[in-house]
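Record format v2
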Amino acid sequence: MASQETSFPVVKKVYRDSFLFLKNTPIFFYPYLILIFLEVFSLLVLFLIPRAPLNTILGPIIRVKWGERFLHYPFNFLLLPKLASYTRMVLTVVFGSLLTGIAVSIATDGFNNKKPKLGRSFIVSVKKYIFIFIVISLINFAWFFIGKFIPNSLTKYFIAGHTRLLFINYKLWQGPIVAGINFLFAIIIQSLFIYIIPVFIIENKKFFPSIISALRFFALHLKTTLTFVLLPMLTYIVIIVLNYNNLFLMEKFFPEIILLVILLSTLLINLVIDPLITASTTLFYLNRREGK
Amino acid sequence: MKSFTYLITLILTCVFLAGCGNDQYSIEKQYYWAQKRAAKIFKNPAASPPRELEKVVGILNNFIRNYPKNKLALQAEFDIARLYITKEEYDKARLQLRSIVNKYNELKDICAEATFLIGNSYQIEDKWNLALEQYKKIMQDYPATLRGLDIPVYIAQYYKIKYQPDKMLAAFYEAINHYKGLALKYPKSVLAYQAEMLVSSCYAALKDWNNVINSLNTVIENYKDKIKADGILMQIAFIYSKELKDKAKEKEILERLIRDYPKSKLVKRATVLLEELEKR
């Protein structure tokens, strides 16, 4: 288990290489820009649901699932983050699977000093789409399940008549603590699956051998991988804090600020967090594979 | 590629057009901002200058003028009245409320609410007799409204808070008669059911437990085909247990609950209570 180290120089070197790669390979951002376009477009649709003609098509779904008031100003902004999160999940699974494959393929080309080409990477990713689709679906399902399970269990616990859990009241649990736990699980889940796509794209292995190989690599480089995922994710804390204070922001400024927060989170995820995590973990994997 | 560009342009145009009309959403948005201005006065009426009040009233009046048929216009009318009350300009508030009553004279609930606020404005000014006049008017003119149902108890509660027991008793008995009258006027209706339940609440406030039980039994008898009376039976059992200390009657009612509503959630509780009764 010699490689269980989280040596600072290793992380530093990989980050230096990653930033250099991101700087010199703008094509790497293209898949993420496509995802941004899709997310912003869907956000626009979600934002316009209370208005004609979209309210005729999508209004009944909101009315039945969440209630009439979320089709009215300014309450629609209270539901918008949830709707945006569900839509992002669907887009990530359907399109993000393909686009992450493209990004990993571009990073591999960059590492091998080949000129990255979008078309070639697209073909590589398309061929392995189903596999990547399953992996991304698994990640999102786990994330969705935990995101629902913890708050629901807490609600049941407190409805049963308990006033405190571990000396902490309901308000604190349902607020910052659940947000913190979800954040922690997001890091763990993403770290656990992070090498599956690089292994599959780079090694040309089959489904289960790729998973086993990726999980083994993760176990061998547990701390380093967690660091690569955690550091960019720390920037997301700003969004968590803003989301937690949705009502305050709406009251203090204007309801449309929620839209800006969602846009900010889309840009942060697709221009900073995801590219940095994908680039750093792929380059780290390639480095280790080459025995550098 | 050309057709794809056309398709994207078409979708984008549709999406952007969705926000252009002066639809309900944009009306709600205008009302929200008017309300936000009003909220500043509601929050700190003493600190807001009179000019600000006039400005907000102007905004709300503009809103009412622009969208007279919109349901938010009515809310805006009430907002203006409440603003005047908050700023202690009671005459203006009452003028506004009377205009609401005249304008919406077909809508009983609205009229009852406006009349109630007129009464409230007198009450704040410590003119109880004038307030009472308005409250009685609600009882007489709008008895079948939510406010109309609520007001007799409201009057009795006022006397209770003011430590006037004689007037409180009289008000409760008047309320009971009023509710009984309503139940007779609209027999077997939802309103009658609510009125009869209020009769039992009034007797409970007077601690007249036998009459509470009688009125609850009347409710069960009159509405046994329309409602599940398990909750009412449990209520009666509690009265026998806690207030009248009649174990035999309590047992009888609990057994009736279990027999008549075997699937009720209250059966478990009733069984426990019966077991406790046996031990006592």
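The radius of gyration of chain B is 27 Å.
The mean pLDDT of chain B is 89.
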